[in-house]
Amino acid sequence: MRTLSSSLLQAQRSPSRRPYVEVKVRDQVAGVARLQFERLYSGSGFEYDGIHAATMPGDGSLVRGWVRTYDTILRVSRTPNPGPGSDFGAWQSWGLVYSSGIALTSLGAEVLVFYTPPGEQRFSVYYRRSLDYGQTFGSPVSLGTPAYGFPLRWLAAGYTPSGDLAVFAAISLRVFCQRRVQGTWSGVWTDAGGYLGDVSGLATWFRGDWNMVISGTDSTGKKGVWTYLYGEGVAQPRDTSSSLQELALASANSQVEFRCPFLAYYDVYRLYFVEKFNGQQYYNRPYRTQSLPGASFQANLWREPVPFNLASDYGVALAPGSSALWLSVPQGVWRSIPPPEPLDLTPHVVSLVASAEPARGGVRVELDNSQGLYNSVGTGVLREASELAIGPGYCTSTGPQASEGLAFWIAGWEQVAGRENRLVLEGEDGWGLLERWRARCQFTWKGTRSVLELLAFILARAGLALSPLSPSTFIQSHRPDFTIHAGEKGSWLVAQLLARVPDGLFFRGSTALVKELSPTEASSYSYGPDAPVLQARYVAHAPPGSWVQALGKGVLGEDFDWDRVDLLTSGVLQLQDLNLTQASQAQQRAQAQIRRWGREGWGGEITVPAHCGQELYDVVDITDPRAGLEAVPRRIAGLTLTYQPRQGLYQHRLLLGGV
Predict the structure, then answer these.
(1) CATH number for the domain formed by residue range(s) 35-337
(2) Residue of 545 and 406 predicted with greater confidence
(3) Measuring CA to CA, how many Å separate 518 from each of 213, 321, 471, 501, 541?
C-alpha cells in the first residue's frame, strides 16, 4: 500500500469526504523524456559517409571531426552558437590519417582531437589540443604505440569532472588506455579489457568509472554490442576491467553485424550504434537506446534499441549541450527539441475507470471537450504513448491532496461529437508495454542471473524499472538456466519467471515492484466500521489440489495442505524443473504452489469508498457482520477505481483472494 499523509487518510475516512482525482499527461515513457530531434543541416554534397566524432565545449560551440573514406583526410569543423541557419559545412583539412577511428572530447575551453597518422605511424596515437574552444589547435603530439605490430582500429576519449583525461585505443583483439592526470600523460598504455575476436567500434563516457561500449565479434564468432567498466576506483577497482555484458547480439552465421557505438550521458545514458545487414535486403542503420532513470551503467539495463531514420556505416555521434542533445554525422546535424510541458487534465475529467490485475491493467479517461481544448489530440504532449499520471485523492483540511502512483500510457482515443463533445483516452499500464515488447535477438543465461535479475533485464527492455519491495530469498538466490528467444513477448517471459517463485509483481507508476506473497503478511488496512463495505460478495471454493512434488535434478521437494489432504480426492501435482539443483530449492518451489492454491481458494469482491493508496497484492482485513466476518484477512487480487464526479461516484471494487 502506498503511504498516505495523515490529513489525506483522515479525509478518506471522513463521512463527508470530497473526492479529488489528479490527471496529468507527460511526454515521457517510464520516466524518460521522449527526445524529438530537428535536423539543422543536410550536407553540402561532398560530405560522404565516414568515420566521425563530435563534442561541445564549454562555450556551446559544436566541434566536429570527419575522415572521408576514399581520401582518408581528417577534416575538422567548428560552429559557434549552432542553431537554425548556422554554417555546419566549413571544414578545415588536417591532412592524411590512417582510416581508423578518431575521437573528440572537451572540457571547458580545452578540446582534444585524437587520431592515427598514416603509413608506419598507424600503430601510434596522436592528438592536437585547443585551449580556445576549438578555434585554434596546437601541433600534433604523439602518445606512443599501444601494441606494436597491431594497427589501431578505434579510438575513444573522455574527461573526468576534475579535468583528468583518458584515451582508449582498440586493436583487433582488445583495448588499451593511457591517462592524463593533473595535466601529465603517463606515457604508458595499460590493458583496458574489452577482449573480443574483432573490434568494430568503441565508445566511453566517464561517470564514476569509465563506462565502455564495444562492438564487434567475440571469440566464438557471435556478433554484438557489449558494455563493461574500466575502473577508476568507484564501482570497479582502478585499472581493472569488468566482464562484458550483452546489449545486442547476432549469431555467428547471421549476416548481421554491429559497428560504431557512440555513448553520452544527457538525462540518462543514451547510446547509438549501427546494425548492418549484409544480405540481399542490405541496410546499414543506426539504432538508439537509453538506460533507465537512476540505473547504474554496470546494471546494463537498456531499453530495446529502435532504429534511427538514417543510412550510415559509421553511426551517429552524440554531443550533450547545456540545453539540448546534439547528433552529428558528416552530412547532418540534429538538435533535440525540449519536450512539451505536462498537461493538466484534472478540471475536465468527466469519468475515469482505472484497473489493475495480475498481468494486466488499463485506464479509460473521459474528458469534457465542449470548448475544443483537446481537438489537437495526436500532437504535442497529448499523443500516442504519452504517460497518463493519475493520482487518486481527497480534499483535505490543507487543500486537495492526491496519492501519486498510477501510470498508464496512451494507446488510443475516441472523439465524441454531439450534444456534449468528449475526448476519451484509453491507456495501458506496464503490462501493456511488456505485451508490446518482443525480443529481437536471443539471450541465454546458464545459471548466471537470479530470477530477480532476469526480471529486471526484461522489464528494462520495455523501458520499465524494477524495485525489490520485499522479495523472497528464493527469487534473489535462484539462478535458473533461461533463454529469451527472438519474437517472445515480455509479458509472457515475465509470467514464466513469476510462476517459479512465491512472489508477485505489480506497478507503482513506471516501476515494477516485487514482493513475496507470504501467508504471514500483516494487514495494512481495515475495512469495516471506519471504512465501510458498501457491497460485498464473498466466495470460497476448493483449490485444484492439496499436495505438490517439485522434481529437480536429483532432488525432490514436497509440500502439503494438510487440512485438505483428507478432504480432496485430487492426486499429486508434480512440477519438473531441472533448474532445481538443491533440495531447498525444490522445497520452496513446492511451497510456492501450495500458497498459490491457498490464495485461489478464496474469492469474491467488495465495493468500498476509494482508497487512495490501495495496491495489488495488499493484505487487508474485513469486518462485515452481514456475512459473519470479523477482521478476516484477504489479499487484494485485483482492483478497479471508478470516478464519476457528476454522479457522485468515487469508489474501489476490490477483488479478493486468500493470503
Answers:
(1) 2.120.10.10
(2) 406
(3) 41, 49, 10, 11, 21
